[in-house]
Design goal:
homodimer; 225 residues; alpha/beta; Rossmann fold; seven-stranded mixed beta sheet; two-stranded antiparallel ribbon
Amino acid sequence: MDTDIIRSWHKNTAPWVSAVRDGEIESRTLVTNQAIVDAVRSLAPASGIDIGCGEGWLVRALDGVAMTGVDVVPGLVEAARQAGGGDFRTMSYEEIAQARLDLAVDVAICNFSLLGDESVAGLFRAAPTYLKPGGALVVQTMHPVTACGDAPYVDGWREGSWAGFNEGFVDPPPWYFRTLASWVRLFTGHGLQLREIREPVHPRTGKPVSLILVGSLDGVREKYA
Amino acid sequence: MDTDIIRSWHKNTAPWVSAVRDGEIESRTLVTNQAIVDAVRSLAPASGIDIGCGEGWLVRALDGVAMTGVDVVPGLVEAARQAGGGDFRTMSYEEIAQARLDLAVDVAICNFSLLGDESVAGLFRAAPTYLKPGGALVVQTMHPVTACGDAPYVDGWREGSWAGFNEGFVDPPPWYFRTLASWVRLFTGHGLQLREIREPVHPRTGKPVSLILVGSLDGVREKYA
């Protein structure tokens, strides 16, 4: 299933670049773009990595932070490079899990980029290979309770959908649903202390749109210092 | 508003004792009673305190753990004492906040007993005066996202309701709604590391009924050891 996700993104590179750059995704332009920028800025990082950076908008938005962007889809990395604002690399989550990044940044960001199952656990396990001791991992994801829909509130694969996106999108990728409890366990189970949760609220519905979790590597400082 | 809550509980002591002891509250008998017992047992504590213990069922359920129960309502403490299973004291959250407990237990439990605003913050601030260094605070509360109802998802006072309870109940207490982000901040903002979140699910609806947060005092071990 994790590989189906990548296959889908290879096919949807072009519509994705225009959807993001033309501001077609309302929840992003209205709420979640600013929310992730605010969450990262509040940590005052000097350096960072955007994991699953896509076409690179967040790297560009974090001007003043020495940013690296990583994505597995070459077409997205190419689009990001052309727009600039940081260093960009093509790399899979599996390669990151194998310590291939070899960085030591202040903050790592996964902005709606954790769609898989095992591949996500691998990223968390590898945090000490790209984060400084004391560095933070910031994850934004759909709010589990509101995103659950009619299905039972349990972890598991869900069918994807491009509902609300333009007609250029094909073959929606499957995604792995995680409860709030499971998101928290991804942090605490991999040596990351949960520091903060944010719940950006939609201005019209008054309900939480997304969940931002901030964890830090403090707990294993001695081990990796 | 915090005092309105206590006033209401003084009036509802008798119906509350029977509602709990006769198993009238379905979400409790079906889901949340066992969930809090499991969460506490998973920590294997030797000693504990139940803050806002009511008529004392949880103290009795945690047999084998040296338990103290505390409640501000004398009628509830009296009912708890008669049923036994631990030590019981009549004390307000304000008195606990003033370090009047003077205990050092392995686990403190607040099971649906954090209904107020300032009084709750005081309890968290005082955690080092009743918990051992490394001790855990376990809170069960209604799941914020599902309990929010039609109101905006922001902290604030809400009107109480006895809907679903028997006709003996009067003057429902107001309660202070907290978002998930605010619950987490109560822990992290008072020197408690968030260790775990549990989301007990209703067997019929498949949706989370409650939220259990487990924090520990590890972060301030040096200070209070």
